[in-house]
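During the reporting period the student researcher (J.K.) took over the structure-prediction task from the postdoctoral fellow and processed the backlog of single-chain submissions. One of the processed entries is reproduced below for the supervisory committee.
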Amino acid sequence: MPEKTNSEAENFIAGLKKKAIDAITSLNGSAWRSRTWDHKGPAPKDTEKIEYTYRHEVNASRGEVFEKATVSEIFIDWPKAAKTLVDMKLASPSEPVSVRVLQIEIFPTSSILPMGHFNLERFYAGKNMMMANMDVFPAATPKEDVDALRNKMAEVAKKYGKDQWELSKGLAEQYNMEGWQYPLAARAGFQFKMLPLEENFPVVRDGAETFFNGYIEIVKKLKDLRYSTDDDVLKNEMRTHWLEYSLMKDGAVKMGRERGHPFEALRWMGLPPTVHY
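J.K. obtained the following structure tokens:
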């Protein structure tokens, strides 16, 4: 049986968090605001009345390059697994459950730059699992720059005998809603759902590093380009769709509301700084 915490994965998450903060600071300045919310269960509608602890830390940067950029961590610990996890065969009834989430949301000021979305989740319930979503949501972003990032991710996928386009299929399905002309997701990244951590950590690690580095390269290349009011229309359409997705479809936000997690933490972490209709 694996250890409750995989030290390599834990160190990687901590290192990527620091790397993200350093990269954002180098572009956006050193003015950060940080808040931490602590919450305890059980959830109001939890018929099992399982107690748990929840900690949500959000570090937010606002500046000239990024209107808002957040680097957040969530820690949730349950003394035993809920019935839903047992029914999904993710845990046995007596197993403690531990979740650690690193989430990075970047809302650039420039309409040329895409929004950056990154989520990495380590899940333990008798065995270590990992989930990840990483993609860009373009506005008036040049297609060749999105393609270049996708090609870099394709090289990572190929290294591990996988196909990038297949790994990104779930992104187009997840970040889409009825009535939209096309998904938010450019399918330039990866999505992983509940993979055994030990066997899959290398591809997740290399994918995350390549994606984040590639996104920052796009920012550095395009951040000073001029953009038009028509470009702003595209940015605001993208942000409106992200707001709609976050409040109406996002499963994590829905779970947070059901469990009484502080909405202010979710707002700080992931909602766009401004949306113009």
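The committee noted the following: The domain at 7-270 is CATH 3.40.1500.10 (oxygen-dependent coproporphyrinogen oxidase).
J.K. will present the remaining backlog at the next meeting.
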